Amino acid sequence: MSDLTGRLAGKTAIVTGAARGLGESIARLFAAEGAHVVVTDIRAGKARTVAGDLAGRAHFVEHDVTDEESWHNVVRETADTFGRPDVLVNNAGIGHRAPVVELARTDLERVLAVNLVGPVLGMKVVGAEMQAAGRGSIVNVSSMAAMAGVFPVIAYSASKWGLRGATRAAAIELGRNGVRVNSLYPGGIATPMSGSPSRPLLEPPEPGQQDADPELARRDALRTYQPIARVGRPIEIARAALFLASDESSYCSGTELVVDGGRLAGFDLEREPTA
Amino acid sequence: MDRLAGKVALITGAGTGMGRSCVRLFAANGAQVVGVGRRLDRLRETAELVMQAGDKAEVLACDVASEPDARELVEDVARRYGRLDILVNAAAMGGSAYGAIRPGGVDSIAETPSEHWHELLHNNLDSVFYLCHAAVNVMRRQGGGSIVNIGSMGAVRGFPAYHAYGVTKAGIHSLTRSMAVRYGRDNIRTNCIAPGTTDTPMMAGSASIANLDPGNPDRYNFNPMGRAGTPDEMAYGCLFLASDEASYVNGAVLAIDGGALSCPT
């Protein structure tokens, strides 16, 4: 598994929200697989460190995904540094918990702006570049919360369901011009958004073994109700993103890839649920 | 290219189409592959293609729609190779190839003779039951495994024809989810791909392929990418799901359809 195969050799990838969590894992894996990576985030300090670690293979751009001009700046810097973008991973997102009757309108608008308006602006601005070039691959990171109802994340669910629909519509539009648009549905992944420290390339434990990291072992123990009874590691999402970003998925467009340990597949009534 | 190094993979339908592509790709990625099918001449062609690429694979003639033969096959592979890590259920009948030998067999139910309905269910679905039944027992004993089934776009959407075929593939989608829920705890992952229109011998000369031919002025283009998929494109999806790269993917239906399922119709 550690042998890398250069599956993105010669490609330039823009990864948003790459300062930590899933975005950091995706950026590091893509660079290791031969891509040049434009690491973008609104958190400049940490993202600069990620780009610095990938010396020569990565370039940091400070980026507010809700700002269209900021997207144009990312495209300009990408062109100046590595050339035309081949891959866009719309990963940047924020979590938010509140029941609908307590939801502040400002929170709703902020979550929709980052999680939905941001990726759609990305598909608009970067998608136009890709369309002009006649090829490209866009990966939108949605969520398990866009495949089911999840309480109490009403604003987050709405934003991720919106991104799911936008992905399909963009797949139809951009597919005619050689640009593939697909989406990922992570469920139960140990990331800073869900309260875990960032562990970008950490492998999951062997089946039946406990993780050496006590924090992850504790989180795994709370997942006994799902078919693969542990939380997912960011690297497991990064590998799915790699498949969708690379030419190996050349006939996938509008594809919705769920990576959730089997939780959405059905109800395991023989297992005791945990709190 | 050793994404399946050390793995033993059993692939059905290995003489043609997606099964053949899986044999070639899995062997190129370091798996010990056993490819099975009904026709030895086709299997030998597959083995020859693998050899020409500098890889190796074993091919065996076996009718996996025969319960004793399917069961013996799984036990034989596990016995001789010491384990069975991956099962790819690619064997299936359908498409223009089936219509050519069974009149009405790929039409709507009003035209489908009941013997063809039963034949399709037996070959496409019973075979998957026999093989999964035997493979799950082997995989549980050894501590895990990965099963990849070939479903279909026709299991997700309705079509004016291919009715019996669609039912067999919907059965595979359902079984995939149920097995994922039950056997995840045994470290057995079960997933399927849902191919769209794919340029395999099974679909040669079909209206679906003609509809995606850019040279056809009368085509009704329901596909955003505007072309049929290739067997190799399906095999890459199977490789991802079969490998440890998909270690948190379980019960997934991976559409490889050029975007067809994103469209209203």
CATH architecture call of chain B? 3-Layer(aba) Sandwich
The H-level CATH homologous superfamily of chain B, spelled out, is: NAD(P)-binding Rossmann-like Domain
Order of helices and strands of chain B, N to C? EHEHEHEHHEHEHHE
| Helix content estimate of chain B | 40-55%
The structural class of chain A is: alpha/beta
Query: How much helix, percentage-wise, in residues of chain A?
Result: 25-40%
Could you say what the CATH architecture of chain A is?
3-Layer(aba) Sandwich
Mean pLDDT of chain A: 95
User: In what order do the strands lie side by side in the largest sheet of chain B?
Assistant: 3-2-1-4-5-6-7
How far apart are the first and last residues' alpha carbons of chain B, in Å?
Answer: 39 Å
Which sheet architecture does the biggest sheet of chain B show? 7 strands, parallel
- Gyration radius over CA of chain B: 18 Å
Major sheet strand order of chain A: 3-2-1-4-5-6-7
How would you characterize this protein structure?
- The complex is a heterodimer of chains A (275) and B (265).
- Chain A has 275 residues and is an alpha/beta fold.
- Chain A has one domain: 3-Layer(aba) Sandwich (Rossmann fold).
- Helices cover 39% and strands 14% of the residues of chain A.
- Chain A has a 7-stranded parallel β-sheet, sandwiched between helices.
- The longest helix of chain A is centred in the middle third of the chain and has 29 residues, at 105-133.
- In chain A, 54% of the residues are buried.
- Chain B has one domain (8-256): Rossmann fold.
- A 7-stranded parallel β-sheet of chain B has the order 3-2-1-4-5-6-7, with helices on both faces.
- In chain B, helix 3 (67-81) packs parallel to helix 5 (114-142).
- The termini of chain B are far apart.
- The mean pLDDT of chain B is 95.
- Classes of the chains: A alpha/beta (275), B alpha/beta (265).
